[in-house]
Amino acid sequence: MLNKVSVQLSKFLLYKINGDKQEEGIYTYGFELMISTIGFFVSIIIISTLLSHFVSSLVFLVTFVPLRLFTGGYHATTYSRCFILSNLTYLLVLSLKNLLWKYVIIYYWYCLLLITCIFIVIKAPIINVAQPITIYKKNRCKKITKLVLCFETLWIFLLSYAQRELFCMAVLSICLIAVFMFISDESIFKKKEEIDYDSTCKNH
Q1: Which end of the chain has fewer CB atoms < 10 Å from its terminal CB, N or C?
Q2: What is the pLDDT of residues 124-159, one digit of tens each?
Q3: CA 171 and chain centroid, separation
Q4: Taking a C-beta distance cutoff of 8 angstroms, is the pair 149, 74 a contact?
Q5: Are 145 and 67 a contacting pair, CB within 8 Å?
Q6: How far is Cα 126 from Cα 75, in angstroms, rounded to an integer?
Q7: Which of helix, strand or coil describes residue 108?
Q8: Which has the higher per-residue pLDDT, 36 or 21?
Q9: How far is CA 140 from CA 27, 30, 147, 180, 185, in A?
């Protein structure tokens, strides 16, 4: 459905601007990305409004989206799966925030934020094998990640004094980015496989 709509929109746009039909695939991809992103924003806001957590959704989007654009990590294979996964992970973060923010000491939240930020700075960006990028773009993403992370940690730190509940939401949102990075980091799992292989060889 998304692809069909995007194809029609790209054809219409190319017709209006007298563009090259060979570029239809590029425009189609752009429309797919734009529509799916808008759908993600709208669904998160609607869900949060229905659950009376509208402000939490804004904190999540402002924290999660800018970093996610440059850190890389796990991506679903289709837009529909991405949409479902995005909403489910948001609900998970929201549920964890509701369960933990009153009971976990704030210093533990600071430690969690620090550890997560260190991991992101060291590992970002995680490159998807299906979508390789140049060394220049990789270095650029790393620099932007550090810059965005600096701004985010600053306002998140200030948020801890103004609104602890939203502070916890922001910390968990950054943790979600680290989780997506971790499960897609081949270097971590390759090392584990090598260790397992070495231990097996020694036993034989």
Answers
A1: C
A2: 998 876 566 788 889 999 999 999 999 999 999 999
A3: 13
A4: no
A5: yes
A6: 11
A7: helix
A8: 36
A9: 24, 21, 11, 20, 19
